[in-house]
Inverse folding.
């Protein structure tokens, strides 16, 4: 059993992560500037300005001008909270998907500029009465993409800070490894769902940096690796398994997995994590699941000797395959 002290520490850790995931990662001034740019684009379109003119203005706009400064400042605040000391961040060493933070923001700016140009171009293809709705959708998309930058890059650095703490814990009391913990809800990705609760032993992986598929596993990833002390059972830190969560929340399960996969999961005693292809970061197809677990289909059931069709209760069908083997 996990000690009361360690469970308390774990609960504090989870609360901190939840609070982190609920924070507003954005810059109001920057959003206001982009909103003003969209408003100007609307005006220019109404004034019949050429697309060439509008493109020039968009390229001159200072999109996300404060993003690098504010993101770096936010990460330094995280470092102080986690490490208890001020830490200067080297922007060139923040790497995600092979890009440093400056390159990530440059890519973001290019994407935003292209979106703004597309916004201007598409206004010519919709009714003027739909302008406001399209305007709000574009602004929401911008906010979402900016938030993704904050969350993902911050997560990369947070793992680095946790690695520093790992070293201290290893030298002090030792650790047995790390457990992957996902936020289970309708936004949970296939790969994070599949790895939820997976334990990585210190005997096999000498640092969290050696662990395959560590968080962040994708943009806006909310999964974390939690340090497990020596002598502790990693299962004690899993509040709920993916299987129990999906059984308890069938509507969310259908939303995450799709109806057919959910029925395969529901009618067969198989752990939900087994439905995920970790390498591909996706759920297995229905056919792959049926073949992997040798689930009997309607045709196979008909061929079983002395089987009376009337005694079999079929509750669901999946692409004409009956899954209930009872």
């Amino acid at each position: 059993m996990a000690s009361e002290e360690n469970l308390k520490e774990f609960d504090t850790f989870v609360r901190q992560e939840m609070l982190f995931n609920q924070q507003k990662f954005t810059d109001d001034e920057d959003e206001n500037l982009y909103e003003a740019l969209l408003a100007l684009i609307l005006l220019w379109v109404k004034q019949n300005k050429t697309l060439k003119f509008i493109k020039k203005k968009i390229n001159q706009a200072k999109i996300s001008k404060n993003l690098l400064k504010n993101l770096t400042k936010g990460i330094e605040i995280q470092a102080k909270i986690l490490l208890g000391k001020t830490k200067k961040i080297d922007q060139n060493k923040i790497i995600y998907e092979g890009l440093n933070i400056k390159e990530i923001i440059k890519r973001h700016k290019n994407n935003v500029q292209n979106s703004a140009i597309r916004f201007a171009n598409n206004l010519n293809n919709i009714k003027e009465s739909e302008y406001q709705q399209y305007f709000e959708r574009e602004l929401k998309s911008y906010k979402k993409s900016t938030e993704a930058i904050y969350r993902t890059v911050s997560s990369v650095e947070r793992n680095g800070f946790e690695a520093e703490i790992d070293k201290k814990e290893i030298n002090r009391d030792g650790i047995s490894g790390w457990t992957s913990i996902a936020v289970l809800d309708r936004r949970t990705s296939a790969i994070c769902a599949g790895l939820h609760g997976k334990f990585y032993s210190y005997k096999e992986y000498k640092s969290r940096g050696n662990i395959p598929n560590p968080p962040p596993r994708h943009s806006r990833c909310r999964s974390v690796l939690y340090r497990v002390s020596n002598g502790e059972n990693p299962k004690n830190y899993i509040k709920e398994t993916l299987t129990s969560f999906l059984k308890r929340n069938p509507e969310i399960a259908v939303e995450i997995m799709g109806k057919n996969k959910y029925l395969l999961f529901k009618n067969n005693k198989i752990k939900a994590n087994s439905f995920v292809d970790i390498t591909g970061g996706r759920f297995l197809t229905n056919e792959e699941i049926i073949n992997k677990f040798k689930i009997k289909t309607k045709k196979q059931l008909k061929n079983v000797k002395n089987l009376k069709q009337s005694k079999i209760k079929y509750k669901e069908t999946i692409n004409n395959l009956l899954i209930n083997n009872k």
